[in-house]
Specification:
This protein is an alpha/beta fold and 144 residues long. The chain contains five helices and five strands, in the order βααββββααα.
């Protein structure tokens, strides 16, 4: 099973708040078989403890340590929010990336995603990508 695939990319998401955005990212991971449904509340719980907003228009919601039993395989979901979602940062999140990492891979996956977004135009590239396949290609270099 691929970490990232077109069925886990939403090009024009809309959410009333960060909790709805996180639930959407989690549902993509559930539907793809990476996690059980119990993982999504743990993603919401993580947000209560510490914001997963990284700045620069990016949020990376993921579960708490207690969520590990609910992870079946490593996976990412990507949702673009053209109108942004308020995560409590200086600016809204335009890209929300849900993460579930099996075993001890959580930090590695988070680091790879953070490295991709350390490039100045990364959010812009993701927001301007015309298809889910183009969005995935932005990530594939950093996740190999």
């Amino acid at each position: 099973m691929s970490i990232l695939s077109e069925n886990k990319v939403i090009m024009n998401g809309a959410a009333k708040d960060k909790y709805e955005a996180i639930a959407m990212a989690g549902k993509l991971l559930v539907d793809a078989g990476h996690v059980t449904e119990e993982y999504v509340p743990k993603m919401l719980e993580r947000e209560e403890v510490v914001s997963t907003y990284m700045g620069e228009g990016l949020a990376i919601p993921h579960g708490t340590k207690e969520a590990r039993p609910f992870i079946k395989s490593t996976g990412l979901s990507i949702i673009r929010f053209p109108d942004g979602v308020d995560f409590g940062g200086d600016e809204p999140a335009f890209v929300v990336i849900g993460i579930a990492a099996a075993g001890d891979g959580h930090m590695e996956v988070l680091t790879n995603v953070a490295m991709i977004f350390s490039e100045e135009d990364a959010i812009e590239r993701v927001m301007n990508a015309p298809t889910p396949a183009d969005v995935i290609s932005i990530f594939e270099g950093g996740l190999e």
